[in-house]
Amino acid sequence: NLGMGPYDAIGWIAEKRLQIEFRYFRIGLDAVSVIIGFALGSIVGIGTLVMALFTGPLIAWFNVKLGMPLIYGKERAD
User: For the CA atoms of 73, 68, 54, 2, what is the dihedral angle to 10 degrees?
Assistant: First the structure.
């Protein structure tokens, strides 16, 4: 019951309020973060790009396959 950080919570809030799937919103949010970082002089490597593209889908997949079954005892589609 520790909750989540603000950056992680943005995706879940957007999913509920904007009716955008978490995975797609998270990819967009991560992409914007990478672009801002690059514009400010950060180094963007292949690892950064892989994480920006796959973090959202992986979180969504683990939520369905592990999170929901542990909480509710079964997979939920909603």
Answer: -120
| 3-state class (DSSP) for residue 45 | coil
31 close to 52: Cβ distance less than 8 angstroms: yes
pLDDT tens sequence across 15-44: 899 999 989 999 999 999 999 999 999 999
- Distance CA(47)–CA(21), nearest Å, equals 24
| Full-model pTM | 0.74
Which residue, 72, 62, 49, 50, is CA-closest to 22?
Answer: 62
Report the distance separating Cα 59 and Cα 64, nearest Å: 9
Which amino acid does the sequence have at 74?
Answer: K
